[in-house]
Design goal:
The protein has helices spanning about 35-40, 45-50, 70-80, 115-120, 150-160, 165-180, 195-210, 215-220, 240-250, 290-315, 320-325, 325-340, 350-365, 370-375, 380-385, 390-395, 400-415, 435-440, 445-450, 465-480, 480-490, and strands spanning about 1-5, 15, 30-35, 60-65, 85-90, 95-100, 105-110, 130, 185-190, 230, 250, 255-260, 265-270, 285. Helix 10 (about 290-315) packs antiparallel against helix 12 (about 325-340). About 45% of the residues lie in helices and about 10% in strands. By secondary structure, it is an alpha/beta fold. The protein has 21 helices and 14 strands. It has a five-stranded parallel beta sheet with strand order 7-4-3-8-9. It has a four-stranded mixed beta sheet with strand order 2-6-5-12, with helices on both faces. The protein has a three-stranded mixed beta sheet with strand order 10-13-14, covered by helices on one side. The structure holds D-mannonic acid (CS2). D-mannonic acid (CS2) binds next to helix 10. Keywords: NAD, Oxidoreductase.
Length: about 500
C-alpha cells in the first residue's frame, strides 16, 4: 500500500481520483473549525471540485483543530504526515464506488501547538470565510434563543486572555482584524440546526457583546452568517473501517472517510467577503434556506432518530440492517408520510413523497452501513431540532402522535445508561445532566416528559401522549421493542 503525501500523489493506484489542479498554487481562503468526517466528506469535496475550476485557487481550506485530546493528537499527526491529504470513498447503493484523494484542505493548524496560532491564522486577510461543524449542541443557545453566557465553558472563556472556544477564537480574530483595518469574514454554520445562520449570529455576537459591546455592534453590521442546509451521510470511522478502506483503495491513509454518493448543500447567498464559485459544482444558492432545512431536519434526521432508538432496542446496530426490518421500515415510512409530511411547507422544487422514498433508499445503502449508535448519540441537542416541532404541531392539531411517543420511550430506554461503558447499547451525550440521569433511571414517566429537553413540546401536559409514553415505556421493559412496535403499528 502506498502512503499518502504530495510526493506520492502521482503514484497512487489508477482508480483513485487525484486533484486535477496544482496544489502548490492553492491558498487558503476558508478556515474550517471542526474538521471531522462530515466536513471532509461534504464541504471539502465540494471545494475540491471548485479548485479544479479556473480562477478559484484562492479558496483552499485551512483546517483548525480547537479541542485537546487523543483525537486531536491523531488528527494533527495524520495531517502532518500526509500533507493534509486524505481519501474519500463514495459508495452508491448499487455497489459501485468512487475513491478520491482530496487535496482541498491545504493546511492544518492545531490548538495543541497553541491557541494563539489558531487565532493568528484567522487574522490573515486572505481568510474570507470561517465555516463550522461544531455539532448541534455546540452553540450554547437555549430553547428561548438566548446565548448561555453563564454556561461554565463560556463564562471561563470570557475570562481568558487567549480564548479557546470557537466563539472566543473567532471574535478575538475579528477584533484584531477590525483594529488592523482588515475586513470581516463570513461565518458559515454547517450544522444541523433550523436557521443555523441565525443561531450562529446569536452565539458569536452574544459572546462578542459580553467582551466588548462595540465589537458586537460591528459584527452585527459587518459579518454575515448565512443559513445553510447540509446533507450527506458520513458514518463514524473505527480501526476496522480504516483497514477496509485502505485495502480497497490501495492507499495507506491514516484518516480515510467514506460516505454515500448522495450530497446536498443549500446556502443563503449572503457572503460579506466573497465566496468560491460553489454554484458551479452543484451547491444551490437561495435567499431562503429555511424550507430546505425544515424538510431535511424533520424528515431525514428525524427518520434517523426514529430508526436508531427503536432499532438499537431491537438488537440492530446498523442503519441498513434496521431498515430491512419490516416493522421498523413501516414505522419510518408512516412517520414520514403521515405525521411529518402534511405539516411541512416544502420549497417548490421538493416533493415530500419523493423525498421520503429517497430517505428510505439512502438508509438501505448496504455499503454505507451507518451506525445506529452514532445517530442515537447527542439526542438532547438533536431531538428538539429534529422531532420537537413535529410533536408540538401534531399535539396542537389534536392529531395522533403515538409513533413519536414510541420514539421518545425508546430514546429514554436507550439513555438509561447514557455515557456508560458497560452496557449493550453505547450512546453518549455530552449534555446529559444529573437531573436527566435521575429521571431516565427512575420509573416515573412524567418526570421524563418534564425534562428540559422537552420544554415547549407540550408532551407532559397532553394526557393521551403521556399515557402512550407511559405504556410504551413499561412495555419496552416488560416485553421488548419488537412487541411494543407491533402494537404501535396496529394502532
Ligand atoms: C444524523 C446525521 O447524527 C445524526 O443524527 O441524522 O448525522 C445525518 O447523517 C446527516 O445529517 C446527514 O446529512
Amino acid at each position: 500500500m502506498i502512503p499518502l503525501s504530495n510526493a506520492t500523489l502521482d503514484h497512487l493506484p489508477q482508480d483513485v481520483l487525484k486533484p486535477s489542479y496544482s496544489r502548490a498554487d492553492v491558498r487558503p481562503g476558508i478556515a474550517h473549525i471542526g474538521v471531522g468526517n462530515f466536513h471532509r466528506a461534504h464541504q471539502a469535496h465540494y471545494v475540491e471540485q471548485v479548485l479544479a475550476l479556473p480562477g478559484q485557487a484562492e479558496w483552499g481550506i485551512v483546517g483548525l483543530g480547537i479541542r485537546h485530546g487523543r483525537r486531536e493528537e491523531e488528527r494533527r499527526e495524520a495531517f502532518r504526515k500526509q500533507d493534509s491529504l486524505f481519501t474519500l470513498t463514495e459508495f452508491a447503493s448499487d455497489g459501485t464506488k468512487a475513491i478520491h484523494a482530496i487535496g482541498s484542505i491545504v493546511e492544518y493548524v492545531s490548538c495543541l501547538d497553541e491557541y494563539e496560532g489558531v487565532i493568528h491564522r484567522l487574522t490573515d486577510p486572505a481568510i474570507r470565510i470561517v465555516s463550522l461543524t461544531i455539532t448541534e449542541g455546540g452553540y450554547y443557545v437555549d430553547g428561548q434563543g438566548r446565548f448561555q453566557l453563564d454556561h461554565p465553558d463560556i463564562a471561563e472563556d470570557l475570562t481568558r486572555d487567549v480564548p479557546q472556544t470557537a466563539f472566543g477564537i473567532v471574535t478575538e480574530a475579528l477584533k484584531r482584524r477590525r483594529a488592523a483595518g482588515v475586513g470581516p469574514f463570513t461565518v458559515l454554520s454547517c450544522d444541523n440546526l433550523q436557521e443555523n445562520g441565525k443561531v450562529a449570529r446569536t452565539a458569536f455576537c452574544g459572546f462578542a457583546d459580553a467582551r466588548d459591546a462595540e465589537l458586537g455592534a460591528w459584527m452585527r453590521e459587518k459579518v454575515t452568517f448565512p443559513c445553510a442546509m447540509v446533507d450527506r451521510i458520513a458514518p463514524s470511522i473505527g480501526a476496522a473501517d480504516i483497514e477496509r478502506l485502505d485495502r480497497e483503495s490501495g492507499v495507506a491513509d491514516m484518516m480515510p472517510v467514506y460516505s454515500e454518493d448522495f450530497t446536498q448543500w443549500v446556502i443563503e447567498n449572503s457572503f460579506c467577503a466573497g465566496r468560491p464559485a460553489l454554484e458551479k459544482v452543484g451547491v444551490q444558492f437561495t435567499s431562503d434556506v429555511a424550507p430546505y432545512e425544515q424538510v431535511k431536519l424533520r424528515m431525514l434526521n428525524a427518520a434517523h432518530s426514529t430508526l436508531a432508538y427503536a432499532g438499537l432496542l431491537m438488537g440492530y446496530r446498523r442503519v441498513d440492517k434496521a431498515i430491512a426490518d419490516e416493522g421498523l421500515a413501516t414505522l419510518v415510512e408512516t412517520f414520514l408520510n403521515e405525521d411529518v409530511a402534511p405539516l411541512l411547507t416544502p420549497p417548490a422544487d421538493v416533493n415530500v413523497t419523493d423525498y421520503a422514498r429517497l430517505v428510505l433508499n439512502r438508509f438501505r445503502n448496504p455499503e454505507v452501513g451507518d451506525q445506529l449508535e452514532r445517530i442515537a448519540s447527542g439526542g438532547l441537542a438533536k431531538l428538539p431540532v429534529f422531532l420537537g416541532p413535529t410533536v408540538k404541531q401534531l399535539l396542537e392539531k389534536g392529531r395522533d402522535a403515538r409513533r413519536e411517543a414510541f420514539t421518545l420511550a425508546c430514546w429514554a430506554e436507550c439513555y438509561r445508561d447514557v455515557n456508560g461503558t458497560t452496557g449493550d447499547i453505547r450512546v453518549s451525550d455530552p449534555q446529559v445532566t444529573e437531573q436527566d440521569k435521575a429521571a431516565l433511571q427512575g420509573e416515573d414517566p412524567q418526570a421524563i416528559l418534564g425534562l428540559p429537553v422537552f420544554a415547549g413540546w407540550g408532551v407532559a401536559e397532553n394526557a393521551t401522549f403521556a399515557e402512550h409514553f407511559a405504556s410504551f415505556r413499561k412495555g419496552l421493559k416488560k416485553s421488548g421493542a419488537k412487541e411494543v412496535l407491533a402494537g404501535v403499528l396496529k394502532g
